[in-house]
Design a protein that fits this description.
The protein has 238 residues and is α+β, with helices and mostly antiparallel strands. The chain has a 5-stranded mixed beta sheet. A hairpin with a 4-residue loop joins strand 3 and strand 4. Helix 2 packs antiparallel against helix 5.
Length: 238
């Protein structure tokens, strides 16, 4: 995918037409991926750039607090230097504000399209526990079926909980283990028993069968949405 520089709207020549060309080229690439239901990393990247513009627009002077954590200290210092050069130039600031307004107006429909694709994929997912779920279901396995594909993937997952002063957050780490073809003998229940037998470090794991009746790009769409949906499912059930 084409990448947009973190500071694209204030670096180099501050020219609306030039920045407009850069933005539209980027959005064209994003929409090409969305047309093929390829969500990630495109949606995440697009939301990052939208928030970048929003934070800058709300607070142009407190850059260190305003920019997302994805920016390194070196990035922030580079932005400060650029800002100091243009802050006294009213015409440049007006041009930047014009660029930001235009860019946010163009990015917003693309973000909405990405979110609609995400919601559709999420609605296509069905998550079923396999057997009895332990009281602490934060470490286990899940099997993933992508549409009508015969081969299913098995993943080990571990949900992590971290918190800041305001709220708790849950993330998930996964590791691909193997693939299998479902059959009379290779059922989710049989797979669970086999995993327990082979992996003694998880004697009583939670196991989930995750499936979608529609085939989606695995790495770019189905797997990322399945991970987030599983976290949501387990968090509500626990």
């Amino acid at each position: 995918m084409k990448e947009l520089s973190k500071n694209w709207f204030i670096e180099g020549s501050i020219d609306f037409e030039h920045k407009k060309y850069i933005l539209l080229d980027y959005l064209q690439e994003i929409n090409r991926h969305f047309d093929k239901s390829r969500l990630y990393p495109n949606l995440t990247d697009l939301i990052f750039h939208f928030n970048n513009l929003l934070y800058f627009k709300k607070n142009k002077t407190m850059l260190q607090q305003a920019f997302p954590q994805r920016l390194t200290l070196a990035d922030i210092e580079a932005v400060k230097l650029t800002y100091q050069k243009i802050v006294d130039d009213d015409s440049s600031m007006r041009e930047i504000e014009l660029i930001i307004t235009y860019a946010m107006q163009k990015m917003d429909p693309a973000i909405q399209t990405g979110k609609e694709i995400y919601d559709f994929v999420e609605k296509c997912l069905v998550i079923d526990p396999v057997g009895i779920v332990p009281l602490m279901p934060y470490h286990g396995y899940f099997s993933l079926r992508n549409g009508k594909e015969k081969t299913h993937g098995i993943y080990e997952y571990q949900i992590t909980i971290f918190e800041n002063k305001d709220d708790k957050y849950r993330g998930i780490n996964i590791q691909f283990l193997e693939t299998y073809e479902e059959s009379i003998t290779k059922t989710p229940e049989a797979i669970k028993l086999d995993l327990i037998r082979r992996n003694k470090y998880l004697p009583n794991p939670a196991v989930y069968y995750v499936q979608s009746d529609i085939t989606f790009p695995l790495e770019q769409t189905l797997l990322p949405v399945a991970k987030r949906s599983l976290v949501k499912y387990i968090s509500h059930a626990a």
